[in-house]
Specification:
The complex is a heterodimer of chains A (114) and B (114). By secondary structure, chain A is an all-beta fold. Helix content of chain A is 0%, strand content 51%. In chain B, strands 2, 4, 5, 6, 9, 10 and 11 form a seven-stranded mixed sheet that branches. In chain B, strands 1-3-8-7 form a four-stranded antiparallel sheet, with no helix packed on it. Classes of the chains: A mainly beta (114), B mainly beta (114).
Chain lengths: 114, 114
């Protein structure tokens, strides 16, 4: 069965600083990987997804993620965070193309300080 | 184009009562997913439905929980004889049959069991 680990429960960064959120997955076949963001009291919004091809994926709001098969990782990055990026971030894996039965990590809460 | 609509946004029930959560997918979307988010946890898959069919209910508790997506009308997640452990946020998501990998989430229904 697939699983997703987000080792950082809570991260605090200064506005304008760079950000990296970690995600490790466990899955036997080629993974389909996603990052979602959840603002307080809201649903989840897709930031980016990886199916195949270029291992560096660009998403919305200036985010990018890099798939590293050797490390079973799919870390999310942003060069300069804005106060509006404060939210909960979830990494997820799907078992196959077109199958949206996602397995989510437990999330990383991002706090931005001035 | 309206997003995924869930209602009620907040629902309070006493132990032993029934809870009904509704979800209208985005226009043109024929796939509906229900996820549950317990406090401080990620989302857990419950059930995947298409019109008049349950495709995958492997995440549904064996008792008291049921889901449907009728030919007409919203998808319904029904919880009978609620217990305090059912208190959670329940998210519905939809996806179109032609686009793989992206789930569009509603804002969730937050159930509190007293």
């Amino acid at each position: 069965a697939q699983s997703v680990t987000q080792p950082d429960i809570h991260i605090t960064v200064s506005e304008g600083a760079s950000l990296e959120l970690r995600c490790n997955y466990s899955y036997g076949a080629t993974p389909y990987l996603f990052w979602y963001v959840q603002s307080p009291g809201q649903g989840l919004q897709l930031l980016l997804k990886y199916f195949s091809g270029d291992t560096l994926v660009q998403g919305i709001k200036g985010f990018e993620a890099e798939f590293k098969r050797s490390q079973s990782s799919f870390n999310l990055r942003k060069p300069s965070v804005h106060w509006s990026d404060a939210a909960e971030y979830f990494c997820a894996v799907a078992p196959g193309f077109g199958n949206e039965k996602l397995t989510f990590g437990t999330g990383t809460r991002l706090t931005i300080i001035p | 184009n309206a997003g995924v609509m869930q209602n009620p946004r907040h629902l309070v029930r006493r132990r032993g009562q029934e809870a009904r959560l509704r979800c209208s997918p985005m226009k043109g979307h024929s796939h509906v997913y229900w996820y549950r988010q317990l406090p401080e946890e990620g989302l857990k898959f419950m059930v995947y439905l298409q019109k008049e069919n349950i495709i995958d209910e492997s995440g549904m508790p064996k008792e008291r929980f049921s889901a449907e997506f009728p030919k007409e009308g919203p998808s319904i997640l029904r919880i009978q004889q609620v217990v305090r452990g059912d208190s959670a946020a329940y998210f519905c998501a939809s996806s179109p049959p032609w686009e793989a990998g992206e789930l569009f989430f509603g804002e969730g229904s937050r159930l509190t069991v007293l």
